[in-house]
Amino acid sequence: MIRLLFTIIAGVLLGGVVHLVSVLALPRIATQDAYSRLTPMTRTNAVTPLALADPNNAPMPFMDPAFAVAICRYDLSTGPLKLTVPVSQAYTSVSFYTRNEVAYYAINDRSAGRKVIELDLMTEEQHGQLPEDEEVTAADRLIIDSPTITGLIVLKALAPEPGLMPQAQASLAASRCTLQTEIAPPKQPEPPPPAPAPAPAPAPKGKR
């Protein structure tokens, strides 16, 4: 009886481990993940609006028909990105995912507190290469570190009524996901001002 009980417990534990490993490994081995499905219909380092949600043919799962959606499929191998998203009238959100669909950052118009969501996306290595002067480390510059070189940025704008969907789509169409090919070099110190020229010697007085 005890041996049977141990066998049942061992089987349950083994099944749980296999299930957990399968769930964690699925995004890495799946061939039809969101990144793969979006690759043929999107450009790298550019904002691509998606068609409205259709239950029969949705590019991503769980798409809400009340939201306009756009995608930026990014590649940071040649430099960081500058993302600019105008805020819509109702609600706007920006979510960041790795190549394996792991969410690592999100921001919306409420938390941004501005009419435009603007930020820089880069790897930790690229972030470390930034100059440390006051202009770059200013508090109003939002820098996001991506844990992977490639990934997805999902832009969403809410249309509370069907008639407001064109406005939501227009706000996302005006978004920009632009590659910065170069990181700004460190600011060089200004040279000291030239020394003033010596005053001319007084002319000798004439003899009487």
Strand-pairing-aware structural class: alpha+beta
Low-confidence runs of at least 5 consecutive residues: 134-138, 182-187
Helical percentage = 10-25%
First-to-last CA distance: 137 Å
Radius of gyration: 28 Å
Q: Give the strand order of the largest sheet, numbering strands 1, 2, ... along the chain.
A: 1-2-8-4-5
Overall spatial form: flat
Oligomer: single chain
Number of DSSP strand runs: 9
Please tell me the overall pLDDT: 79
The proportion of strand residues reads 25-35%
Counting DSSP H or I runs of 4 or more residues, the number of helices is 5
| H and E string | HHEEEEEHEHEEHE
| Biggest sheet character | 5 strands, antiparallel
Topology record:
Elements: H1 2-29, H2 34-38, E1 47-49, E2 67-75, E3 81-86, E4 92-98, E5 103-108, H3 109-112, E6 116-123, H4 124-128, E7 143-146, E8 150-158, H5 165-173, E9 176-179
Parallel strand pairs: 6-7
Antiparallel strand pairs: 1-2, 2-8, 3-6, 3-9, 4-5, 4-8
